[in-house]
Amino acid sequence: MVTNYVTTSLPGWAEDPRLVWGVFGGLAVIALVLQLWGRRLDTDQGGASGGRPVAVSRIVSDAAESLRPPSIDRPVRGREATISDLQRLLRRSRVANRIAVVTGTGGMGKTTVAAAMAKKAQEKGTPVFWIPALNASELAEHMVRVAVACGLQEEALESARAGRVSLADAVWEQLAKTKRWLIVLDNLDDPDIARSGSGPLHDHRGWVRCPEPGGLLLITSRVADGGTWGAGTTVMRLAPLPDHDGAQVLLDGAPQAGSQAEAELLARRLGGLPLALRAAAKYVAAPSSRHHTFAGYCRALGTELASLIGAESPQASDPETARAVIRHTWDLSLDHLADNGILLARPVLRLLSLLAWGPVPVSFVTPELVEQATGLSATQSGVDAAFNGLSVYALLEVPTDASGAPVPGLVALHPLVREITALDLTQRTDALQAWHAALARRIYQAIADVAGAELSDRSVARHLFPHLLVIAALGENRGNLHLAQAVATLADVLHHERDHEHVLILSGMLAGAWAEGIGPDHPDTLTAVHNVAITLGYLSQHQDAVEKHRQNLSTRLRVLGPDHADTLASRDGLAVSLGAAGELDEACSLLEQNHQAAVRLFGRDHDQTLRSRHSLAGVFVDRRQFQRAAALFRENLHECTRVLGADHPYALASQSGLASALSGLGDQDGAIALRRQSLDACLRVFGSEHPDTFVARSNLAYELEELGEYVEAIGLHERNLTDRLRVLGADHPDTRASQDALVHAQAVLRPGGVFGNLFRRVRSSGSPNP
Fold this sequence. Notes:
7 strands, globular, 4% strand, 5-stranded parallel sheet, mainly alpha, 33 helices
């Protein structure tokens, strides 16, 4: 942390009144000109009435990079009227209905329609933000990023984090100021994740609201009930494709496979379901397929499909019928793979269907997993052949990154393929317990492997997270101690990766499991609850963290007594959360009490004492008592170095804290010297791609900015951004922080940037600077 400071001694130039008033007079003139210019722009862009919408040109494209809609690589058949209606809703600024819900059963092409609409909007210059509606926390995170891309300021976010306003309110207030946009909430099949508090979704107080004229909220969902979505909503139900359009989908994918009439016959047989049509076209177009014509494929569907849904045009909008149509469509592909010796394609597909929706590391499916689940003999070459065969017939997809490039080592099932295969497996297999047990053993081993891997090889941990949740929830696996250990291990790995959102979920799972299995007062349960509270603090949910720490401290005092190390840890955690929430006096009192107890119980150089002294010094920095903070950090640095060594993380943390205290005292040179030492040590001990190295590099860059050394600071920010992009990815919060820091530092060096920076310093003098 870099802190602005106040000093009792003035620099030489500040003693010349004429120079001082000249500087402030110049700044006042600049500020007035900028204000008048801003009003002129507001008038030009937003008109004289209303809330002065933000110009589209102000939308930050980098922040929206990962919210990019999927690309459309084929014509969208039979949905022209729906897409045209959506365009009219977006174009007409005075219509009341600003929420559109495209609904239909699985496989009907809802996402394809939304993607086509997004492409049309982008061609007209409308910013588009695509949000996959996976769960409540990710939906909230993406909506905040949309608002930031549309100009939401840090002050508004801080106000929401502090609980002064609703986060959803802050986001929608910013969207109301933006002239035109399209937000797509894709696959919102569980509308409850978009609610706010205990209120219903249709009251529009959560993430689904009627936007101001100019914006359109487009939702794809299987939920067709208009009452669920509330007033101002246009519900568009997708029907199966007519024979002509369905035939065109087949001909687009396999133009040499037959005539228009033959394609129409097959389209009718498949119920006009777009997903089934594309799967059929993929099959007949593949060089290795047994049937290369529409007529041959239609005959091969066999009597089972005909007796199930009738020879006439099936009603594929019925969910059960849709599932049957699609399953029989790809059964041909699986049978063909088996006939050609790829015997593991079907069991591999079934194993993947029991995992979560989302990317699966290919390395997760091993021959041992297949053998333990199915009893079949399996080799690595057989598993590889199964993956290749499933990919050929489009039963597996390869996920792409923000730029659209495929991500090696990952595969994903279409959600409907996953759903139907899992349902079919449940109905056909009596030995599901063996499948579930095999998955539990494999996820435990996979997480253990990740924990023991090099830091650069730990990116797979995030992909294992959703699958662990699903496997742990399977009936036979509840209470599995190995899975509980896997949860704890993965939480530790993701904590070091600073993936605190997922750590919070895992810590909550573990606390609940221990409370149920060994009791709510067991020390292990209390440790899990403590970790939940700590993670809430990392997520800036400080009031929730304070409440959780208070409850846990009360329990630990009752169960373990006031002098137990865990009780001191709870008191320390409570104090740190209170300090972050602004309750510095109570925080300082608790930490002084804790430090005295630690010295009395464990001595001056015990781990517990070192931690408590560090926390107390940190609160002194927050209270701007820099002399006391510096003295404690020096003492802690000395003890850490003597007992643990100069390169121990505790010593490096104390060194960083001392640098913050020196910066507060105005000793910028001393602070920078310590920052350089910390960075050198992190590079030597952890390497260039360790999270602590990233933090040390950022701290040095911020300190250099305080001295106006922006050229070197920019170089450090650029290195951090490059490394974090490679190691963490573009969507990680730390990567985005590096990007913001680099943009800010570069802005200072642009023409006019120095004056803007000087003006910001005058306004923020004496305020803590994060």
